[in-house]
Amino acid sequence: MINNTLNTKTISLEGYGIKDARVRYQLSPEKLHKITIDKGQGTETSSGALAVNTGEFTGRSPKDRFIVKDAVTTARVWWGAINIPFDEDRFDSLYRKVTAYLSGKEVFARDCYACADTDYRTGIRVITEYAWSNLFAYNMFLRPTQDELEDFDAEWTVINAPGFHADPERDGTRQHNFAILNFSRKIVLIGGTGYTGEIKKGIFSALNFELPVFKDTLPMHCSANVGKDGRTAIFFGLSGTGKTTLSADPQRKLIGDDEHGWTAENSVFNFEGGCYAKVINLSEENEPDIFRAIKKGALLENVIIDAQGHVDFDDISITQNTRVSYPINHIQNIQEPSIGWNPGNIFFLTADAFGVLPPISRLTPGQAAYHFISGYTAKVAGTEAGINEPVPSFSACFGAPFMPLHPTAYAEMLSAKMKAAGVHVWLINTGWTGGPYGTGTRMKLRYTRAMIRAALNGQLHTVNFEKHPVFGLEVPQSCPEVPSEVLNPRTTWKDVTAYDRQAENLSKAFKNNFSGFEAFANDEIMGGAPL
User: Fold this and answer.
1) Closest Cα partner for 237 from 227, 224, 251, 253?
2) Catalytic site includes residue 34
3) Which DSSP string corresponds to 252-270?
4) N or C end of the chain: which has fewer CB within 10 A?
5) For 21-52, how does the pLDDT look when each residue is reduced to its tens digit (9 = 90+)?
């Protein structure tokens, strides 16, 4: 029940076991911004955005993400190194410890929604220890109207307590931080980490289970936009591949930048009400929409600020994973509501640091399924400790850390939808050309944009294609606004023999990775493998 006294809204959290807390409910972004600064937990930048340091963790901790193994999940979840089981009784015990820790404190509560399509909408209550974590929830989830708050039904609850540290020996965690999903109690329990991405990815993981299992809807780690023709484009990609950047197109309306559902009615809806973008090397020239979205209400994470409040987006002394969250209406050209219809093109984005894959290639249905299950990109030197040269990185369905089901369950849904809708599928390499990382150069953003634009406009349907000699991909031999020599990666290398060796090595990496899925893949999917 919401009590309104002197325009101050309050709710009780006693039912969650959080007792005697000073509950700050549904505070405005301005109030959360001010509280954060007053507590010395953040800084206002010259653009008006709030900047915070998330502390020990500046990214997700996949080895510390767990799912409670119970009657709902035991037979359905793909258990292993990604979906790590957690005991029910230990969860209940840890939950009581976290709620006891929050009791008596000032805490921040917010009611919000996921899923822009009201037929699939999910009510969420986010309870946070810090004001700025609650601002993140305001930015990232859908914001209810005052009328909707009066009888709000929270199906899922997120409890976020960065200051609480677990005792691994007693609590069953790996270390002091944790993010645990309980599908029976519908709770995401987060402790020991201030990285806000754990909040959004906790709900994403929940929807990645519930939508396909119970609502015949494919959840996707993708961005999406829609053209003037009403056709929707979908962009799959892991962090650093350009998913957010490439979907922010001034000629198309943005549906969302990260998480979507594809329904049986052939609609695509955004899960979120905001964007969470990487800001490393951000510039107004290259990414004007994102740059201009960083204003009052936006939340920057782990960036370096000078004495005048200016952000140095090139400074990665805290982390390479510098981020900003902002409400989607900070982007001018958006689709309202965040729903698109009739997907016409799907783009798989990869940042190939080996300089092997073509900048654009067309995929057959079998290749599309194979590359979707593979989810390839590459880690470059310096992104993680011990990485001194490019390393292949595979994440099934371009989002394995958030996928509770077996990857083939999502791949089969995607394949059926692609065929039914008649979509064109493209592999886009936003990575290196002319050689690997350290020798070659990063693909120019303007070329990538031109190639995607040509695919969307149908201009590539009439050009000649040639098959890549190692991967069997169909490579266009011409594209408006792109030099033809850029389209064929082998010709951009000074030493073509070195290219051939590199291509063969990457091909082997693909096949080695896919060996774990061969038993579940049909002949069509296996036919999409490198030659």
Assistant:
1) 224
2) no
3) SEEEESSEEEE-TTSEEEE
4) N
5) 999 999 999 999 999 999 999 999 999 999 99
